[in-house]
Batch of 3 targets.
Target 1
Amino acid sequence: MPIYQSKNKKPSRADWLRYCALVTMWGSAFALSKIAVAEISPTIVAAGRIWVGVALLFGWMTYRKHRLPPLLPKPDIRWLWFLPVGITGSALPFLLNAYALQVLDSGLVSILLATMPLSVAALTHFTIPEDRMTVTKIIGLLLGLLGIILLVGPTLLRDLGGPFAIAQIAVLLTAGLYALNSVLIHFMPETPPSVSATGMLLIGGLVLTPFAVFDMVNTAIPSVHALVSLMALGLAATGIGSIFYMQTIRSAGPSFIATSNYFVPPFAVFIGVLFLGEKPSAMAFIALAVIFLGIIIERRQKS
């Protein structure tokens, strides 16, 4: 079976549309996760969102007349890829992120997750010849990270370390896992996105389910509000998001999708203005300008 290796071509209009959709879904995931973990343990939240996503994706995969690769009599080689992709792309990052959001402000979490593009740049430099690290690229990525810090608030950096250092390390590890996952997907054997996304989540769900069942024994029945948040998290950011994620990485490359992390906090600001009547400060507009400048510089060096 051939190994798929994209040329990291210029992103198409479809890539940019999926990119915007992912920013929207991942941006809402912070609030939904925060609501869910207030009443439900991180293992149940992580496993629950995965199984909701699996149910959606399995239905979509069946509708598309696709099937999961065979396991018997001899396992298809793609299962050997689904295992690390599922662990690095769903099981561990979902669990670590849910754990961290129990004690950390979502703004600080967004800053720490915004280190992912830098991790991707380091990994792709050594694994993808068409995506080498350059001075221009690094300048663009660092500008994007600076913009996130300005937008969310530099004062949050004062919270680094201290009693919640383990949770902060968990978020940084999550960013590294997502970076590794995007590179693994880039090199996966050719597989329809609905199949690869279902396989990734299925593995993640199987890994987490025993721990989630153990926690359920001592967990009270959560409120409808928490359950609805968990369901929305599974359907959007996990289910639909996984398909778009797979499609965009295979089409435009890991580095392109990684920069979406820079637009998640700005999306949160936009939601606040649109639905909550909030008024962004002058610093917010400066931060947005810095983020856009960083992305423009990072993308221009590829053209």
Target 2
Amino acid sequence: MRLLEFLDQEDYATAYYDPALDTVSRREPNQTRKPRLFLRHLNRLKRIRAINKLERLKREDLLGVLYAVPEPEGMGGGPPGF
């Protein structure tokens, strides 16, 4: 399952969880085949979220280097010494 299936887009972006709005772990008596969330599932989701955050930070750093405003090195565009 994906993390986005558990949280709304707003909640995923702000990392806010409201137990009152949680419909995943709430079970009705007629829901006998609904899977339960165990700690191993929650820990896996936590690791996935941490990995996604790390990848996003790396991507932002790379884009910052790629699209940074170049520093002026001098007049002209030729190699140094000319």
Target 3
Amino acid sequence: MHDTHDTLRALTMVAAHLASGDVQPAEVPGLLRRLADSLESGALRLPGGLAAPGAALTKPTTGASPVDAAGAALVPQSQSYAREPDRHAEAVKRIFAHWQAATNHAKARLTPERARAIRARLAQKYTEQDIVTAIDGCASSEFHAGKYDDLTLICRNGEKLERFIELAGELSNITPATTTENEIATLKAQTRQARDEGRTEDYGRLNEKLRAAIRKTDQGV
């Protein structure tokens, strides 16, 4: 039988691994069950001190049990632990890069909130191209561009994503003249935002694009 002290130390280790990213949230229930079983059987050997988060778990060899930083087994040798590979990591990066370019948010960062929003839609079986199309729809909308175009909004839920996908289709059917007018309005809003935020480099680039769009309209192109 285990005592309360060992149980608390085991739970504290799990919490540290979870906080550091060594353990994914979905893996916690199974890991807790294995820890409970090993505590009951007396097979769990805890280190003298808690391992530092981020270095607490080492990758086990095939068929082996994971160990902590001190080399002590976390679960009985008959049980193994393996983290599921991140299938969406590269897609998330590509989608974020496209969003940065499409919405002129070059200095934006891939925050946990943005990454979670993308992953949630991918988990619902929306494709990478679906999300890219939705981003384009949002970026091309005079109402949304520069104001309501964050990834957390575009990917808030399936209904939002689908609305922006539909919007991309609607905007693709606009006449060239109207497209230019929308482009000018969008560039004006983005230029003002860059100026107000003191982003000198972005302001200069956007202002030049705005002038070019206006010249195109004046020439009747």
